[in-house]
Structures are given as structure tokens and as C-alpha cells.
Amino acid sequence: ISICRDLPNIEVITFSVNGISDLEPLHQCQNLSELYLRKNNITSLDELFYLKTLPRLRVLWLAENPCCGPDPHRYRMTVLRNLPSLQKLDNQAVTEEELSQALVDGVEITAPPARRNVENGWSESTASSAAGSTTEPESELLTCSLEETNKTQEELDMKRVPRDKYSSFSPQETDCSCKKRNNVLNAILLLMKELDAEGLEIIQQTVARRLQAFQKKELQEE
After folding, report:
1. Residue 24 belongs to domain with CATH number
2. Would you say residue 114 lies in a domain?
3. Which residues form the U2A'/phosphoprotein 32 family A C-terminal domain (predicted)?
4. Is 65 a domain residue?
5. d(CA 82, CA 215)
């Protein structure tokens, strides 16, 4: 995420499922309008301090982070109190009633988090959540990988990936190769939004050649 310090004009960022815990690198991204941070390691809502300076931020997806805690209402109200310009939070539209209620139920964040010892009332929930994630059975990893790719495409308003495209993965591939493939795919999908027609045509031609090479290889193996 530190690369964002060198991308002040970036408008859409998808960093879901990346182990991110620090949002400080985002505070200079003044053109940022959509930020997807689902399933990271953000432990404190104090990290919102770095997003309060972003005037164009309208969409934030922060769900499934430890900072969401056991109280969904408190979490949502606190986010909206500090980021009242949001139009959508966690894929749910923000209403005027919620913004008004956030002034009452939300907690205002006035300082950045303390890095050495972050005070967080939901730390126990964080620990139990982290412990649970380490015991995920291998049989669920493929489903998780496919769901993450589809979630990223949903975030970017793109077509979902058919499950049969992943059906050939072996259990050995699932834990390493599949995750790597999934990350590469997510990055490509995001970068494609930045291309013009000429760039997309180059991508299309390159993909067509790659597909032909794979098909030729499969025929030879048969």
C-alpha cells in the first residue's frame, strides 16, 4: 500500500485481502473516490483519520476487518460520522437518516492511531477471528479464492468468473498457485479500467494469441 504515496491522482483502489493494517499512505490521494479494503488486518477505526482528508471519497468497503468489531451499528455510525461524504459503505447505500444518527451514535476520530500500542476495545474479537482464519480447511481454499475474485469483480462492476474455470485446480495448486493466479487476475482487472480503446485492443490481441497457444498445447498433449 505504500506505493499510494506516489500515486496522488489515483481514483479507485482495490486492496481487498492483502493483510493491510495501516492507511497512512492514502492520506495524500486527493482524487480517490472508491476504496475497497475488505478482509484486511485493520484493527482500529482510528485509521479513518487518514481518510478524512480525502474530499472525493464516495465509496468505501471496509467489511470483514477486525475494526468492524461485534457491534455493526457502532461501526457503521462511527465510519459515517467521520466520513459523512460517503454514498456507499460496505456495498450498502448511505441514507440521510444514517448521517444524522451518526452524529449521535458515532465516535469522532480526531487523532491518528498509536502505532506501538493501538488501543482497541475489540481486540479479543480480532484475536479469535485471526485464530479461526488459520484453521481454514484446504477443501475451502478453492471456494474462497473464487469468491475473492468474484468479489473484486463485483466491486469493479464486472462479470463474475464461472466456477468451472477453477475446477481443474488440484489441492496442491490451491494454496499457492491458485492464490497467486487470483492476485494477478485481480490486478489485471483493476488496471484494465485505466486503459483506452487502443490499450484494450492490444490486450485483446495478446490474450487471443495466448489462448491459441494454450489450445494448441492441449491438442498436442491429447
Report:
1. 3.80.10.10
2. no
3. 72-90
4. yes
5. 53
Answer yes or no: is 30 within a domain: yes
pLDDT tens for the chain, 222 residues long, are: 889 999 999 999 999 999 999 999 999 999 999 999 999 999 999 999 999 999 999 999 999 999 999 999 999 999 999 999 999 999 999 999 999 999 999 999 999 988 644 444 443 333 333 333 333 444 444 445 556 666 666 666 665 555 555 555 555 555 566 666 677 777 777 777 777 777 787 888 788 888 887 787 778 777
pTM above 0.90, yes or no: no
Domain span at residue 66? 2-105
Question: Domain count of the chain?
Answer: 1
CB 100 within 8 A of CB 94: no
Alpha-carbon distance 120 to 67, whole Å?
8
Q: Which of 78, 36, 84 is nearest to 61 (CA)?
A: 36
Q: In angstroms, rounded to a whole number, what is the distance separating the alpha carbons of residues 80 and 40?
A: 20
